Amino acid sequence: MANYSYFHKLxxxxxxxxxxxxxxxxxxxxxxxxLLSTYDLEFARQNLDRERFTQRPASMWRWxxxxxxxxxxxxxxxxxxxxxxxTADRLGGHLGLQKLxxxxxxxxxxxxxxxxxxxxxxxxxxxxxxxxxxxxxxxxAGGALAAYAAxxxxxxxxxxxxxxxxxxxIESRITGAEVVLVGGLINTAARVVQEKIDRExxxxxxxxxxxxxxxxxxxxxxxxxxxxxxxxxxVIVYPTGGGTGLIGMWKAFREMQTLGWLESTxxxxxxxxxxxxxxxxxxxxxxxxxxxxxxxxxxxxxxxxRVPQSFADRLIMxxxxxxxxxxxxVNDEEIRHAQDRMASTEGVFAAPEGAASLAGLEYLxxxxxxxxxxxxVLFNTGSGLKYLN
Length: 389
Known about the structure:
Layout: E1 7-12, E2 18-19, E3 35-39, H1 41-47, H2 50-54, E4 85-87, H3 89-95, E5 99-104, H4 114-127, E6 132-136, H5 140-151, E7 155-161, H6 166-174, E8 178-182, H7 186-200, E9 203-204, H8 213-227, E10 235-239, H9 244-259, E11 269-275, H10 280-286, H11 313-322, E12 326-330, H12 332-346, H13 352-366, E13 375-380
Parallel strand pairs: 5-13, 6-7, 6-9, 7-8, 10-11, 10-13, 11-12
Antiparallel strand pairs: 1-2, 1-3, 4-5
Helix pairs in contact: 4-5, 4-8, 5-6, 8-9, 12-13
């Protein structure tokens, strides 16, 4: 379909090598780094009006020109995207913030923001002829892959720690995935995934081991810009494990700069929030390092943040430094209290990861890193209902 997508290059984030976009790709052969999609933004600038997207039916796919699927028939969708941006006046009043908002991703299909990334990745995999998809997961990404694979008529295998919340296990099984439970964390699951790939020929959908999950997540950035009438907020607070959403939104802001769509001259300061029991990004940031070291003995109730080392750690660090952002860690007790506060003040039953964002925000307000008049978007990445056992 002509001009359905303006996707035109796939390049290594580290060395800039280019890869064919009509062939199945994983990571850069030379430097073992993630691949990122680029679009013909000059052509888009001449042919797209930002107001056009507002007039389309609500869906992540109303931004299809800036997503990597060429043929609309290959889109695998459950209605993801356009999660609400809620004003949080009571919570803001408690914190002394005049302009606080919650981007509530719990209202996506499968109950978390993972639906966005897996919708894009599964759709592109379908377009490229893949039929067997596998993923190592802390829980929610596995459930999303299973659901979208079922929707697309594809096979899925999900490998997750044996202490993953039961809702994720049931969700993955009921939507038809082969579920493998392992001792250890997501890094152990990743080793089992590689063994199954070598033995059984699955395609790896791990975070940044394929190029397109980040494209689905970046649409959160487009939605935020649109919600603020193309004047971006001052601060975005985001819970970060693998970092796909953080990197994706920053990518979106850069794309919008090139498109000439932004009324803002300064991009948001990006805040990474991690759990104190697994904080490799925070540790690297405090030492001003370009990459992270593996975090031993990771442990936190926020299972989505229990990622000892992101494959895209360099991109995460680049985003923090480029945005004049910061990385903070919060403990599990602070996460529990923040979960209670968000629910009791704003009616949002946040996942522990989303609650961690609030706990991190409270820390930054106390430290005067955020001022009372600044506009702040807090991301709740999923529903707390998925963590009930």
